[in-house]
């Protein structure tokens, strides 16, 4: 049996520098000290308030997370003598925390900067209040650290439904996408789609930086979709709601679903996505089929399944006939 | 009897041409790959892309010296691998990138 080679799913390792570089546009982060620690790894992609640890209780302390001082920690530290506070930071930084953030109006204790430099702990000042900062930082960390992989497929936004079109080379993925673009839908990625897990049961698709906005059509060549069709024809990222697998009819060993009642799913990085297997044959308009499948999926997401209603009607018909 | 459709061949090759897998070599590669009745995959450090897609090949970011694994599955997989690995080792026959 020949197994098709597939890209390995990866879980990115994030450093303090990654966190800082990607903060732009989400929250303001100013580097105050400890530049040498920018390569520190954020082992657990979460934010953490040191809380009890500052009082000396270090059991179960989440040292590999980004440490954020809240008002409680700040007030607690402020009330201490300078000497005691330094000792406190000394113990905290010795745990090899990746970085520490002073959000909102909290003034940085200058006596701790030298300790941070020595332990290679990055010190940041954030403009937002701690709760706002923590929320945004968690979302960013989740995005940066979620598992991801690359799939040989084309990704489209069809009337708000994210559709991943997969199939072997030459089966017509890009041509279908082009037809969909002409009908007003938007391209996310052609031929190679980067997928990352969002939460536990969603997938977000994007294009690679290099390939974004471009597609290749056999016989025409490389096209820049944004330039030809305008900004409305492209989209940066989109959640995958449906997978359409294009298959040569001759390759269909199993007879495909005729009613749409079978709940086929396709798995990527541990997430199951509803799947439709669509046979490709002369005279079948793939653009139309993809568009209709997307609209049907939209209905299904709202709770309506056509085949179920048809089934109900037939049962009703039979029962009234019996009553006659 | 061997099932021709699942006949598999694979080979490791090293990119030798000066500028790596940019547009011209990528398009030459896909042109050759598309001639064969076989699915072609190219792998670099765990990332696999279709060998019949120019765009996908370019996103690999494969520079000169990169090691690639070419896999072909299908009736003509062996012929495809032979010609493709030959093409890569001849630096895609691009005159300016031979040194």
Descriptors for this entry?
heterodimer, A: 324 residues, alpha/beta, Udp-n-acetylmuramoylalanyl-d-glutamate--2,6- Diaminopimelate Ligase, Chain: A, domain 1, Rossmann fold, 2 domains, 6-stranded mixed β-sheet, 5-stranded mixed β-sheet, 9 helices, B: 99 residues, alpha+beta, Histidine-containing Protein, Chain: A, 4-stranded antiparallel β-sheet, 4 strands, globular
In short:
The complex is a heterodimer of chains A (324) and B (99). Chain A is of the alpha/beta class.
Please characterize this protein's 3D structure.
The complex is a heterodimer of chains A (324) and B (99). Chain A is of the alpha/beta class and 324 residues long. Chain A has two domains: 16-144, Udp-n-acetylmuramoylalanyl-d-glutamate--2,6- Diaminopimelate Ligase, Chain: A, domain 1; 147-309, 3-Layer(aba) Sandwich (Rossmann fold), CATH 3.40.50.300. Chain A is built from nine helices and 17 strands. Chain A has helices spanning 16-21, 71-78, 82-94, 113-119, 130-145, 173-182, 225-229, 286-301, 306-323; strands spanning 29-33, 47-48, 66-68, 99-102, 122-126, 148-151, 153-158, 161-166, 186-189, 193-198, 202-206, 214-217, 221-224, 237-239, 242-248, 265-268, 271-280. A six-stranded mixed beta sheet of chain A has the order 9-7-8-15-17-16. In chain A, α6 (173-182) packs across α8 (286-301). The longest helix of chain A has 18 residues, at 306-323. In chain B, α1 packs antiparallel against α3. Chain B has 99 residues and is of the alpha+beta class. Chain B is globular and about 40 Å long. Chain B is 32% helix and 24% strand. A four-stranded antiparallel beta sheet of chain B has the order 1-4-2-3, covered by helices on one side. The mean pLDDT of chain B is 90. Chain B has a single domain, classed as HPr-like (Histidine-containing Protein, Chain: A, 2-Layer Sandwich), CATH 3.30.1340.10. Chain B has helices at residues 23-35, 54-59, 77-89; strands at 8-14, 39-44, 47-50, 67-73. Chain B is built from three helices and four strands; from the N terminus they run βαββαβα. The interface between A and B is medium-sized, with 23 and 25 residues.
């Amino acid at each position: 049996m020949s197994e098709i080679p597939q890209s390995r799913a990866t879980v990115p390792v994030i450093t303090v520098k990654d966190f800082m570089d990607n903060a732009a546009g989400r929250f303001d982060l100013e580097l105050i000290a400890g530049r040498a620690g920018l390569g520190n790894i954020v082992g657990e992609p979460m934010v953490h308030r040191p809380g009890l640890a500052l009082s000396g209780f270090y059991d179960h302390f989440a040292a590999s997370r980004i440490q954020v001082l809240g008002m409680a920690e700040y007030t607690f530290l402020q009330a201490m003598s300078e000497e005691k506070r330094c000792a406190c930071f000394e113990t905290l930084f010795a745990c090899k925390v990746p970085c520490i953030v002073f959000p909102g109006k909290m003034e940085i204790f200058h006596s701790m900067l030298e300790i941070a430099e020595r332990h290679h702990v990055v010190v940041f000042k954030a403009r937002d209040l701690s709760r706002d900062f923590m929320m945004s930082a968690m979302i960013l960390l989740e995005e940066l650290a979620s598992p991801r992989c690359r799939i040989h497929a084309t990704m489209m936004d069809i009337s708000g439904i994210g559709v991943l079109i997969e199939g072997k080379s030459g089966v017509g993925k890009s041509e279908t996408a082009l037809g969909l673009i002409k009908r007003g839908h938007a391209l996310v990625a052609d031929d190679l789609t980067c997928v990352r897990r969002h939460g536990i049961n969603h997938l977000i698709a994007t294009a690679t930086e290099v390939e974004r906005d471009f597609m290749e059509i056999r016989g025409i060549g490389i096209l820049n979709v944004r330039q030809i069709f305008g900004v409305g024809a492209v989209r940066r990222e989109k959640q995958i709601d449906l997978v359409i697998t294009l298959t040569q009819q001759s390759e269909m060993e199993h007879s495909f679903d005729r009613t749409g009642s079978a709940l086929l799913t396709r798995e990527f990085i541990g997430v199951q996505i509803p799947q439709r297997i669509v046979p490709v044959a002369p005279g079948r308009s793939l653009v139309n089929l993809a568009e209709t499948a997307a609209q049907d999926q939209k209905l299904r997401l709202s709770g309506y399944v056509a085949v179920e209603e048809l089934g109900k009607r037939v049962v009703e018909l039979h029962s009234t006939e019996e009553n006659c | 009897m061997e099932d021709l459709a699942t006949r598999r061949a694979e080979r490791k090759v090293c990119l030798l041409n000066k500028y790596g897998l940019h547009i011209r070599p990528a398009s030459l590669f896909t042109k050759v790959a598309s001639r064969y009745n076989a699915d072609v995959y190219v792998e670099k450090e765990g990332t696999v892309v279709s060998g019949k897609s120019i765009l996908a090949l370019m996103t690999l970011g494969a520079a000169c010296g990169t090691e690639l694994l070419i896999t072909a599955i299908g009736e003509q997989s062996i012929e495809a691998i032979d010609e493709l690995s030959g093409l890569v080792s001849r630096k895609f026959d691009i005159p300016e990138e031979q040194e």
